[in-house]
Write a structure and sequence with these properties.
Pfam families: TIM. The chain has a single domain (6-246), classed as TIM Barrel (Alpha-Beta Barrel). It is 39% helix and 15% strand. The protein contains eleven helices and eight strands. The chain has helices at 18-30, 48-54, 80-85, 96-101, 106-118, 131-135, 139-153, 180-197, 200-205, 219-223, 242-246, and strands at 6-10, 38-42, 59-63, 90-93, 122-127, 162-166, 208-211, 230-233. Strand 2 (38-42), helix 2 (48-54) and strand 3 (59-63) form a beta-alpha-beta unit. The longest helix is centred in the C-terminal third of the chain and has 18 residues, at 180-197. It starts with 5 loop residues before the first strand and ends in a 9-residue tail after the last helix. The chain binds phosphoenolpyruvate (PEP).
């Protein structure tokens, strides 16, 4: 089966009011969207449930993080089980902002991934190298090490619940997008890694999406790469052009 194209919107710590959140949803609810693409939006946790209640049913909702413990004295955390119980199907884990600003290690990200799939959630698992790592030729090594921790923590069948987001740190929020050749090269390297570290079937079936300054102008070309199965979009997911990114694969009807 071909891999279904996937577009996720990571709202990060935006928008700043409930009214703005409703306006973002209205744009998506009113838009002509390519429903062959799986669409997931990820607002801050306070908006997860109200957003899920007003967004059209074809659009899924993702949390931006969860904790690996089920419950207990962990102030400020949300568990994977609580998300699943609230009907939230996806969670983003290992985003570079969490790895750098909140010092999450690959082992913690792997524990969270394990807890999420055990709770029945699907995971958008983010990996990616810094500019220094890319310039020193370490991209594949860095990304493989980030994935290694997850490979050790979950079972082969759990990979059906994982979408890998390759997000070069130097491209996130910088306006500096990876070229389609750079994205394709790393996506292929990730697929080759999965073939060896997990199985050829998991490598073939797992969606590998690109994130880092994707916008309406660059999404089409990136989407043509054979190993680019979609996007994780930050800044542009808060703008009307998000609709064009969702529709990157849409075939125009002949007139
Ligand atoms: C992201 O935060 O996942 C992201 C890709 O951000 P941006 O599109 O703004 O670079």
């Amino acid at each position: 089966m071909p891999r279904q194209f996937f577009v996720g919107g990571n709202f990060k710590l935006n928008p700043t009011s409930r009214a703005q959140k409703q306006a973002l949803v209205k744009v998506l609810n009113d838009a002509d969207l390519d429903l062959n693409t799986e669409i997931v939006i990820s607002p801050p946790s306070i908006y997860l449930i109200p957003l899920k209640e007003i967004v059209r049913k074809e659009i899924k909702v993702a949390a931006q993080n969860c904790y690996y413990k089920d419950n207990g004295a962990f102030t400020g955390e949300i568990s994977a089980g609580q998300l699943a119980d609230a009907g939230i199907p996806y969670v983003i884990l290992g985003h570079s902002e969490r790895r750098t600003l909140f010092h999450e290690t690959s082992e913690e990200v792997a524990q969270k991934t394990k807890a999420a799939v055990a709770a029945g959630l699907s995971v958008i698992l983010c990996v990616g190298e810094t500019l220094q790592e890319r310039e020193s030729g370490a991209t594949t090594k860095v990304v493989s090490e980030q994935l290694d921790a997850v490979v050790k923590a979950i079972k082969e069948e759990d990979w059906a619940k994982v979408v890998i987001a390759y997000e070069p740190v130097w491209a996130i929020g910088t306006g500096k997008v990876a070229t389609s050749a750079q994205a394709q090269e790393t996506h292929l390297a990730i697929r080759e890694y999965l073939t060896k570290a997990v199985s050829p079937k998991v490598a073939e079936d797992t969606r590998i999406i690109y994130g880092g300054s994707v916008n309406a102008g660059n999404c089409k070309e990136l989407s043509l790469q054979p190993d680019v199965d979609g996007f994780l979009v930050g800044g542009a997911s808060l703008k009307p052009e998000f609709v064009d990114i969702i529709n990157a694969k849409k075939v125009k009807a002949k007139v």
